[in-house]
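ok trying again, last paste got cut off:
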Amino acid sequence: MSSSIDLQSDRQPIAIADLPNLLLGADTIVPTLRGPKRYINFDNAASTPTFKPVADAVYSFLRWYSNVHRGTGFKSQLASWAFESSREMVADFVKADLQKQVVMFTKNSTEAINKLSYRLPLTKNDVVLTSLMEHHSNELPWRRAATVKHIELDPDGHISTDDFLRKLKRYAGKIKLVAITGASNVSGYINDLDFLARETHRVGARLLVDGAQLVPHRPVDMKADDDEHCIDYLVFSAHKMYAPFGVGVLVSARDTFELGDPQVVGGGVVDIVTLEDAYWADLPEKEEAGTPDIIGVVALAKAIAMFEDIGWDEIMRHEAELTAYALEQLNSLEGVTLYGATDPAGADSRLGVISLNIADIPHALAAAILSYEGGIGVRSGCFCAHLYVKDLLKVTPEESRTLEKEILSRDRSHLPGTIRMSLGLYNTRAEVDEFVLMVKKIVAGDYTGEYVLNKEKGEYYPRNFEVNFEEYFRF
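nice, full thing came through this time. structure:
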């Protein structure tokens, strides 16, 4: 491995076909009831693995690792340079203007949204307009800060543009923020950000885009110089874009954070402290208390460099082709129900997030069979989007109340949900074929395990199948 930090230099184009070979853990073998199998990861919407160039950049940086800012040692100066260079790379990646906007590093998208909810001057008299499509991270923080109103959904699960316009008109003068996901982590739908921005700004509100799902799959332009279509606030997470070392990003209109006290105080946020006063540092240091996740930031910057070396056209082409192929295969199976858009011809206008159920088999059981017998990693449940999943599944208010009582009594046996197959840019048709083959076996009842339900967790485990994890990893 190189002894120099390689974030921008000596970069070469990367072909999509090379990505499986560059993936760390691509050849990982896992135990199953049917013997050892190569692990297939279709859980990319939750977190992505990483690639060797990202790991190499981190390894190269570790020999120079030191705390950033105010250190006079060479390593501290170099670490500070890498950290701030990474910030500039993030700004360029989403077309932010650092004269008008500020890039702040957080733990993840959830913390970024909470940080913004703390800083915006909201009261319960103010309205935050969001949708029934949202991840809980773009729902719960606003409940504490303001009055939340929801945009309804069309029958197919898209955000209703008609209801959006009705809500803007109904709450005119009260809406301070429209907080919308860029793309759904359940259906893969991509929202029309230009339309949302234009209509939001027309009523004098600002727009927050939760880009956790969108940014790893589509180029995002914050349009800082376009007052009508600009994104005022954008959040996203490195762990969903092949840099799983832990860092989130909040790109904000600079004026939002220039005045007022920071949410978290301590080291690094002040210019001077006296017995009576504290004088805050300039942005972004003012909002990045304590030692930041320097490694995570470097990893994110290298991941961004990889995206650019692959090229967005190639990324979108490959993911659309793979999504179309998966939809074609799954549509052909009896006993499989798909949610959201199911037409392969529309794959280029959505993400490769496919939610499904298999016959009358509980989603948690199907996910367990995929794992314990197929070595395939998916996610099942409601994906931190309970409101959306219950809407897609047509859960009635009466059923919802019954479920609430069961869950509060620590019984998750009947938790509604789906299986989520989420594709990454390194996944292949052969892996989709393996997934489809296992789905066929589940439909046919061709699985060997005797599965036991843990009611408190709502999870299934094969009886008499024990794994000693220390055989695979030790500290």
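cool. The mean pLDDT is 95. The first strand starts at residue 29 and ends at 30.
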